[in-house]
Amino acid sequence: MTLAEAKQKLAQYGQEHVLKYYEELDPAGQEALLTQIAETDMSILASCHHKEELAQKGKITPLAAMELDEIAANRESFTATGLEALRAGKVGAVLLAGGMGTRLGSDHPKCMYNVGVTRELYIFECLVNNMLDVVKQSGCWFHLFVMTSDKNNDITIRFMQEKNFFGYNPEYVHFFKQEMAAATDYEGRIYLEEKGKLATSPNGNGGWFISMKNAGLLELVKKEGIEWINVFAVDNVLQRIADPCFIGATIQRGCVVGAKVVRKNAPDEKVGVMCLEDGRPSIVEYYDLTEELMNAKDEKGNPAYNFGVILNYLFQVPALEKLLDGNMPLHIVEKKIPYLDENGELVKPQEPNGYKYESLVLDMIHQLDSCLPYEVVRNHEFAPIKNKTGIDSVESARALLQENGVEL
Ligand code: UTP
Question: Is the CB of 270 under 6 A from ligand 1?
């Protein structure tokens, strides 16, 4: 892109200010900035002026979950079906590790966080240990695809190599990068993070399948005959990955997605809950859950929206492929964004100062025809690490790890 073309594009979106330091840059820096301007989707940024419209929901009604007693009664059969799929190489897993983990506030990617107390025990190591249980049970490896971003890819790969993949078979581990999106102030004006660089952040976890495809990994999925992909977040150190019983239950129920859910610990707990939206499976975020829905009861008198998602989904690959042509809804999220101030000095804000533009994996559920919410025991499978202390923190996860017999 030439400077003239860049100016034209920027003028169209009211972003001319990003060329403020252009003349100070060396030729390579100028070219890099022009390339970034060419590649950045600026059409989405104006949507920050009508955020509320983006969040419009349809009619919400309950969606029953498969509860623990039903799972217990069918455990043998579900597990046999799941193991059969694993042994036939039909299951793969995707670790979503492209996030910035800003709430945890560590300088390194979240997967490198050491949750050990008397020994080293990294988040990635906890996840691999959980995967190795299934490898042992099934007697075979399954492919792990790790999504990173421009901001943490190299360091994540180096870490895993240095740690010898914590005992996982490296031939079954594949890394790919997600896309980035511009970050702006509250008026939708793109911040600069360097004189020759627009501020960017990973574009949310909803683009994982497109990014996998763009990285050429869909070919590997096809070649290997992978029919089911278990997507999971980096920060739940207790979660079961490629859990045979969960896989078997989803297959036997004939659903194209399974979603692990936990019983909420309070009506206003901050988790997204499974529901139907206009008759299709969906997830309503806690901030969209009205008082009325929060207190609604089902026919047995139990809370009607009582199962929260834990970002552990099993997707059927052909169903995912159908989504590739569609658009994902956009979420505008308030975050702390490092930026250059008026004097060209880098500021790392302590409080949110603008917006990031993201798509979310939970929106995929609504685009699919059927979903099985599958209950898991909260204290056995849900120990998210979002913060350093308090709720969903390193502290609470350590206590849960110990409760489950993990030596720290
Ligand atoms: P979170 O919603 O906790 O976001 O991600 P985050 O960016 O990691 O953390 P905060 O909000 O800044 O503290 C849930 C999961 O989705 C992944 C994260 O790595 C985590 O596993 N994720 C999030 C991505 O892979 N890409 C993204 O762009 C965002």
Answer: no
